[in-house]
Amino acid sequence: MATTSAFKWPWQYDFPPFFTIQKSLNTKDKQLEAWARLVIDYAQHNKIYSLDIAEATTSELFNNQKLNRRLSTDGVNTVLQYLEQKSEQFFEFFRRISVKKM
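That's the Vacuolar protein-sorting-associated protein 25 sequence above. Prediction below.
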């Protein structure tokens, strides 16, 4: 019988400022890159093929209950827009997942 492994969260997930989109362009770009990688890894690990933004904002992906921090709906939209802009880099993800916007 195969066992599934728990998802391994990146170190940023336990860093409270990660849940607030940063204003500094250099920092923001690195942050969005980390969020993009997290969304893709999480979706692949959990075999998620569609993403409803309204539901996503309350899911563990964007809501760290341990820290009592969550990424705002605007933040989630920013992350997904970043993924869309970087579609060449993340093409495999966008080819397989559909995003329901609010």
